[in-house]
Specification:
It is built from six helices and no strands. The longest helix has 30 residues. The mean pLDDT is about 85. By secondary structure, it is mostly helical.
Length: about 120
């Protein structure tokens, strides 16, 4: 997949306390982790819905893999989105492309948030 720096990772690298890793996008007073961005950040609901729609198309709505993905716990979905291979390289490519687009939208939202914070 692609990359997206989280506040959790940034705080870890800079040796900052956990209070510096709060999600600036949704202000929910939770750590901005990969899991939070993919599954829970309310600021990213529209982007998440686009991702899930792309996932449904990529996996084939009638396929057993699609239903197992959508019924899976968040941790399993995260592994798939981060590149855990399926038995179908074409599906893997579609999943990768959908997740890369999601990450670009997340990065764009993060940059806009940082810009607003610097220039209120």
């Amino acid at each position: 997949a692609g990359t997206c720096e989280t506040e959790e990772h940034r705080a870890e690298i800079c040796n900052l306390p956990p209070s510096f890793s709060v999600c600036p996008l949704c202000n929910a007073e939770v750590v901005q982790s990969v899991n939070h961005l993919i599954h829970h950040c309310t600021h990213l609901n529209a982007e998440r819905n686009k991702l899930l729609s792309c996932m449904r198309s990529a996996l084939g709505p009638a396929s057993s893999f699609c239903s197992s993905f959508f019924d899976a716990p968040d941790s399993s979905k995260t592994k798939i989105l981060l590149g855990a291979p399926s038995d179908d390289p074409i599906v893997d490519r579609h999943v990768d492309m959908a997740f890369r687009k999601f990450l670009l939208r997340v990065e764009s939202a993060s940059l806009a948030c940082r810009s607003q914070a610097m220039h209120p």
